[in-house]
Structure formats: structure tokens, C-alpha cells
Amino acid sequence: MSNTIQWQLEPRHSYLEFEIRHLYITYVKGMFRKFDATVTSNGTDFNEAVVTANIDIASVFTNDDERDAHLRGADFFDSDRYPQATFKSTDISGSNGKYQVKGMLTIKGVTKETTLDVTYHGRNMDLDSHWVGGFSMTALISRKDFGLEWNTTLLAGGGLIGDEVKITAELEFIEGNQ
């Protein structure tokens, strides 16, 4: 990469959320309060970029202390044994600010190829005169693919929670070459 830029996540203006079906009638949302990511690109051309991310599993937050403890426990993330989830890109394709980022996602010690749909919204200068790039990201994963299999059967049939997890993020990255 001739014009390599190292982009560092700006955590105060970024969030990482998830949602999953609950009782098959609604969705429960949660977020990870602590995560970090970097992007190494050739200028603002992201087709050859490298994306890495680390998520602190113990930072899971769903606005319910009991549920958060259950998610950190062995039934779900087992955060004592697996304190981080990670992502590293393997291929990026796209144009006009719309990208598909393929990579290896590791949760609870299980690694699977995952595709992220990413939109680059451009860049602007912040109040400290740093160039900042804005991105939106979505992905769908099966929680069972990563060993997150706990569920309970409802009296009316079906499980308490669904399998498909929607992951969304709004991310700001500060350009490192300033």
C-alpha cells in the first residue's frame, strides 16, 4: 500500500449492538461497551484494507443485570474462559462507499467466516483538527455456529430466543497519518 493510513477506533462516538428474537414476538437488544478496532487502508480506498477488531465480552450490556450475568456465564459467552471475541478481515470488495468485508470471527473459541456489510460515509475534520472517517456495519450470524446453544422450550412451543443474531455498529475512526 503506497498511501497507507492506520485508522484507530474513536470509542466515544462508536457503538456495537446486537439483537435477537425473544419469545418469537419481539427482539431483545444489547451492546458491548468495550471494543477496539483498526483499519489499515490505502488512502480512502478500502478494497485492500485490513480490518481487525477485539470485543471485551464481559462488557456485554442489555439493561438487565441478571441477563447480563447469564450472557457472561458458561451457558453463553463463558467470558472467564473466552474474554474476547475477535474479527480479522480476509477480503474486502465493493465500490462507492459500499463494501462487503469477509473475515474470520471468533466467539467462544469458535472461528467462522463471516461477512460484514459496511458503508463508508466519508470523512470530516473533528474539533481537534483530526480527520475522522464514519462507517456503518451490519451482519447476521447464527449464535449456534459459535457454540451459544442455550435455550429453553416455551409452553406454547418454540424456544425462548432465536438463533439469528443481527449485529450493527456505528463507527468513527481517526486517521493516524496526520
Structure description:
The chain is mainly beta. It has a single domain (4-175), classed as Lipid/polyisoprenoid-binding, YceI-like (Lipocalin). The chain is 4% helix and 61% strand. The chain has one helix spanning 65-72, and strands spanning 4-9, 15-22, 26-32, 35-42, 45-56, 60-61, 84-95, 98-107, 110-125, 131-142, 161-175. Strands 1-4-5-7-8-9-10-11 form an eight-stranded antiparallel beta barrel. Strand 7 and strand 8 (98-107) form a beta hairpin. The model has no long low-confidence stretch (mean pLDDT 94).
List keywords for this structure.
single chain; 178 residues; mainly beta; Lipocalin; eight-stranded antiparallel beta barrel; 11 strands; TTHA0802/YceI-like_sf; Lipid/polyisoprenoid-bd_YceI; YceI family protein
Overall outline: elongated
CATH superfamily: Lipid/polyisoprenoid-binding, YceI-like
Strand % is over 45%
The tally of helices reads 1
Low-confidence stretches: none
Protein name: YceI family protein
InterPro entries: Lipid/polyisoprenoid-bd_YceI (IPR007372), TTHA0802/YceI-like_sf (IPR036761)
Pfam families: YceI (PF04264)
